[in-house]
Amino acid sequence: MLRKSGFVKPLLISALSLLGIILAALFWFNGASDENLLDNQLLFTAFRGEFVSAITESGEVESSSNVEIRCEVKSRGSGGTAIISIVPEGTFVNKGDFLVQFDDTTLKDRLIEQEILVAQNKASLIQAENDLVAAGEMAKEYNKGTYNLELETVEAEIAVSRENLKRAEEYLKFSNQLSAKSFITRTQLQADEFSVTKATIELNLAIQKRDVLIGFTKSRTEEQLNAEVKKLEASLEAAKSTLRLAEKREKEFSQQVDKCRIVAPKSGQVVYASENDRDNSIIIEEGALIRDGQEVIYLPDPSKMQVRTKVNDSKINFVKNGNEVEIRLDSAPDASISGVVREVATFPMPQRWYQAPIEYEVFVDVTDRSGRAKSGLRAKAKIIVDRKPDSIQIPASAVVRHEGEYFVIAVESGRYVSRKVTLGSNNDKFVVVETGIDVGDEVLINPEKQKEKIEFPKT
C-alpha cells in the first residue's frame, strides 16, 4: 500500500502540472496572460450624448459701436499736451457736454503772435500794392507824357538852333560884304564867323540829343520802368503768399486752441482709454501728457456690446464666423450669457517681445440683452467650434496609436482585447468614436501601460 500511495502522489502532481500548462497555453493563444486581469485597472464606460468642442479664452467686454475721442492737439516736438481737466469716468453725458480740456496756454500765446504777424503782413501787402500802382502810373506817364515832352523840347531846341544858325549865317554874309568895304574890323568878322560855328554846333548837339532820346533813352527808360513794375509785381505776390501763409497758421493755431476743449459728439457713458500691458502703461488722468492722435475717451453704445479676445495660432483655424459662444463675466462667473463670433482677424497681432506667442484677435458679439455685459469688464469666452447632439464618446486618453491606426483596449469576458476604432471630433477630454465601440463598452483609460501586453492585429 505504501508503494502504491508513493506512486500515485507524483502522478497526481504531474497531471496537475500538465493541466496548468494547457490552461496557460489556452490563455496565451486567446490573447491574454496571467497579467490580463481586471484588478486595479482604470476603466471607462462608453456613453452616448452631446459632444461639444470649445476653445476658452479670456477677453474684455467693450462696445462694438464705439465713439473714440482722440487728442487732435499737435505735440510740436514735445512729449504731448497735458490734460487740465477731464470728466470723471463712468459719467453719462449728452451731446455737447464737456469732456476734456487740454493745456492751451502756449497755443494762445502763439496765436496772439501770429495775429500780430498777420496784421504786419497785411500792411506790407498794402504797401506793395501802392508801390506797384505808382510804378505803373510812372511807366504810363513816361510813355504818354514825359517822353513826348522831352521829344518836343529837343525838337524845339533843334528849331531854335536852326534859326540861330540861319541868322548867324546871314550876319556873316552881311559882315563879309562890310569887311570887303572895310566898314568892320577883322575882329568883328571873326566874331560873326564864330557865331555861325557855334550855331552849327548847337544844332548838331540838339539833333544828336534827339537821336539819343529816340534811339536809346526811350527804350532804356521803358525797360527800367517795366523792370520796376515786374519787380513790384513779384513783391506783391510774395506779400500775398506771406499773408496767406500767416493767415493759414493763424487759422491752425485758432483751430488748435478750439481742439483743446472737447465736447461729447453724442450721448453715452464715459470710459477712459487707459491701457495696461506687459510693455506699456497708459493712464488717463489730469496732468497726463497725451500724444497727438492718442485715444482719450470712449463713448460706447451699450446696446451693441462685444468681447474682444485672443486665440493662439494653433487653434485659430477652428474658429469661424458664426460660432456659438458662451460668455461668463468674471464679475458673475456662475451665469453665462450668449454670444456669436462676428470677426476673426486675418493677420496676427504684433509680437510685443521676442518669441512671444502668435495670437489672432477674435471679436464676439454679445447677443444677450440682459444688460449684464458692461464696458471694461473681464470675461471668459467659450467658443463652440464643434457640437454633435448624439455621439458615442470615450476619454481621449483611452485611445492608443499602433502602426498608424487608432485602437482602444476593451474588456471582453474578463480579458483585455484590442479594437480598431474610427475617430471623429475631439476636445480636451473626450473623443467621438464613429465605429469600433458601442454604448456600454468598457475601455482602459491608460492603454499605454498595457500596450505591450496586448496583441494588436497586423495592418
Task: Report on the architecture of this protein.
By secondary structure, the chain is an alpha+beta fold. Among the domains are: about 80 residues, RNA polymerase II/Efflux pump adaptor protein, barrel-sandwich hybrid domain (OB fold (Dihydrolipoamide Acetyltransferase, E2P)); about 140 residues, Helix Hairpins, CATH 1.10.287. It contains 3 helices and 24 strands. The strands form 7 sheets. It has a 6-stranded antiparallel beta barrel. A hairpin with a 2-residue loop joins strand 19 and strand 20. Helix 2 runs antiparallel to helix 3. The chain is rod-shaped, with a radius of gyration of 56 Å. The protein starts with a helix and ends in a 15-residue tail after the last strand. The N terminus is likely disordered.
